[in-house]
Write a structure and sequence with these properties.
This protein is α/β, with parallel strands linked by helices. The chain is built from ten helices and 15 strands.
């Protein structure tokens, strides 16, 4: 069986802690003094399911034909996925091929859509190091240099709105390199919209699910689907096959009030039937940043909030372990209205603020 599939299954059974860096030794391909390590040769963190068409896809093969086509296509985007390794190399290089030649969007830079993001563990804290700035679909670049020959733990986040066909990490042939297993803790599964997928932060590590993962020391499975988080029954069935520490449901911005009233309760009931002990956090949709000036915007947002709140109250009256996070000041809109780039999608400030709102709630739920 493919090593990625083996470890992903172990991870969700809680046995991945049996693995160590030594267990994940990989053999590089050496070219002109650079040892290239294929990132598909060891487990990817942030994958919910083992059986996927490509190593870096987010959607399981078993459900690919059942779910909406838009979700299936967005499942090829690598939002929230990361790879861990340890090296004493002075320079870290990457070679990676992207699935799409659409490297950027009008409202989101190529660094966020298609970039790789490098972090290093320094004094117990994950610190940003570098991000690629892709201009072509196939890239071979030095991601970071001048690091000094000191052993460190690193992680690389994959692109938010593009897919990855292949990825290799290159270090000097004489450098020490260890592939590192994913965080073995039960993950938090975050189901949401384009905002959860990362729209529109400047680089992959700045999506709030990744910020929270670094702060909390807990892995996240990012199930953000741009324009396509609509609480379909098939999506509930797919997500219910996971066994996380916490489900977070944040689909309001992609729905209207009638659709929420039609789908929210059955969606939640499907999760609860499959995972009766797993806590569920429902996040109200952020309100648009221009509601203070555009007539009708505030009323529309309030109607969505009312519909989801009704679903929460009905569901929580019959089920324990259900929590609510309201929209109030979720992204600081009550402060300065500076947290979005188009009144809807979050900029880096908005991502930071939403992470700050979510963090104490999740800590309290999971006693972290």
């Amino acid at each position: 069986m493919h090593p990625i599939r083996v470890c992903s299954a172990l991870l969700f059974l809680g046995f991945c802690a049996l693995l160590s860096a030594e267990d994940l030794a990989v053999t590089p391909a050496v070219e002109e003094g650079i040892a290239w390590y294929d990132a598909a040769a060891w487990p990817i963190e942030g994958k919910g399911w083992a059986e996927t068409t490509r190593p870096f896809d987010r959607i399981p093969d078993d459900f690919a034909a059942k779910i909406p086509a838009g979700v299936r296509e967005l499942g090829k985007n690598t939002a929230g996925l990361l790879t861990r390794f340890r090296t004493d190399a002075d320079s870290i290089r990457v070679k990676y091929a992207l699935l799409s030649g659409n490297l950027a969007m009008p409202h989101m830079p190529a660094t966020g859509v298609s970039g790789l993001d490098l972090y290093a563990l320094e004094d117990g804290k994950w610190c940003w190091v570098a991000c690629t700035m892709p201009t072509v679909q196939a890239n071979a670049v030095e991601l970071a240099g001048g690091l000094g020959r000191r052993m460190r733990d690193y992680l690389i986040y994959l692109p938010l709105y593009n897919g990855v066909e292949s990825l290799s990490i290159g270090v000097a042939e004489d450098a020490e390199f260890h592939a590192v297993a994913p965080n073995p803790a039960k993950p938090i599964v975050y189901y949401g919209t384009s905002i959860a997928q990362g729209g529109c932060c400047s680089h992959p590590g700045n999506v709030y699910t990744s910020m929270l993962s670094r702060r909390l020391g807990v892995p996240f499975v990012n199930l953000g689907f741009s324009g396509s988080a609509r609480m379909e029954p098939e999506m509930a069935e797919m997500i219910a096959t996971l066994d996380p520490a916490l489900f977070v449901i944040d689909a309001v911005p992609n729905m209207d009030a009638p659709l929420i009233r039609q789908r929210a309760l059955p969606f939640l009931e499907t999760l609860r039937a499959a995972r009766p002990e797993t806590p569920i956090l429902i996040v109200d949709g952020r309100h648009y940043a221009d509601t203070h000036i555009k007539q009708g915007r505030a009323a529309d947002c309030q109607e969505l909030s009312k519909a989801m709140r009704e679903a929460y109250e009905t569901f929580s009256a019959k089920n324990d372990g259900v929590y609510w996070l309201g929209h109030e000041n979720l992204i600081g809109e009550d402060v300065d209205f500076d947290a979005t780039m188009d009144s809807s999608h979050l900029n880096d400030l908005g991502m930071f603020r939403q992470a700050n709102k979510l963090e104490p709630v999740i800590r309290d739920i999971l006693s972290l």
